[in-house]
Design goal:
The chain is 48% helix and 15% strand. The chain is of the alpha/beta class. The strands form 2 sheets. An 8-stranded mixed beta sheet has the order 3-2-1-4-8-6-9-7, with helices on both faces. A two-stranded antiparallel ribbon has the order 5-10. α1 (12-23) links the parallel β1 and β2. α1 packs parallel to α2, α9 (224-245) packs across α12 (290-301) and α10 (252-271) crosses α11 (277-286). The radius of gyration is 20 Å and the shape is globular. It starts with a strand and ends with a helix.
Amino acid sequence: MVSIVIPAYNAAPFLRECLDSVRAQSFTDWEAVVVDDGSTDSTPGIAQAYADADSRFRLLRKPNGGLSSARNHGVAHSTGEWVTFLDSDDRLEPHALTSLMQAAPGADIVVAAPSLTPTVMDGITALSGMLYQDGIECSAWSKLYRRDTLLRIPFTEGIWYEDLDFSSRLLREVSTVRTIADHVYIYRDNPTSFLHTFSAGRLDVLHVTRTIEERESSRPDGLAAAARSRRLSANFNMLALIGLNDRHGLHADTLARCWSFIRSHRAEALRDPRVRLKNKLGALISYLGPRAFILASRLVYR
C-alpha cells in the first residue's frame, strides 16, 4: 500500500482539487493521510468530508508546527510500506501511483520527472547529481519512498529549505534510486509563495548549504566539490535577492558574506566541468563586481 501524506495549513481554496486527484488514481491500494497543521479556515472540515465518504482518507489534526512537522507526523501515523508526499495546493496525475509503484521493486526511492533518463543508481551518485543541479531535484514530492527509511531519516523541523536538507541526508543512506521519465505531479505555481518572494527565512539556504558542504567535506568519500557548487548557487541567489530587495541595508552583513564566498570559489566553479552553466555564468559576471552581478540578476528575477 502507498501512504499519501498531505500536509495542510489553511488549504481550503485548493484542497478539494488535491484530494480529488488522489481519489482519481488508477492505482487503488492507497491511503491519504491529511495532516491539518493547525488551520484556522475550513481545511479540517473539507478533509473530514472526504474521510467520511471514503475510508481510504484519514484526517490527523495537530497544533501548527510547520511543513516538516506535519510531514513527520503523517509518516509516523501512516501504515503503507511506501510513502509519497503531496502538497495540499498541488495534484497528482491519474496514473501517478501506478507509474511509481511499477518502478518500486528493488528500489529504496523512485523519482519521476519528464527530464530524467530512466536508470538505476546508488544514493551517492544521485546525491552528486542533485548537488550539481543536473539530475534529481531536491523536492520531496514526485518521489516514492520506503516508509521505514523515512522513519529513520525524518525531516528537520524548524528550518526553511527542509527539502534540500532532507534529500541531502536521505540519499546518503539509501542503496538504490530508480528514476523514471514521467510527469506524475502537477505543481501549482504560486507567485506569493515562499520561494517567489524575498524574506529573511530565505537566507536559511545559506546555513543549509554550508552544513551540507561541511558534512560532505568530512567524509572520506565526500562530495565536497558538488556541495560547494550547490552552496555557490545559494550564495549567488541570495546576493541577487538581497541586492534587489534589501533597500534599507538590513542584511548588509549577509550580502558581504555571500560576496566573500563567491570570490573565494568562483575560479573553482569555472574549472569544474560538472558545475552547471548558470553557475559558470554567475562566476564570470562576478568578476565585474557585486554591483554588476546584482544588475545582471534583474534579468533572472524580474
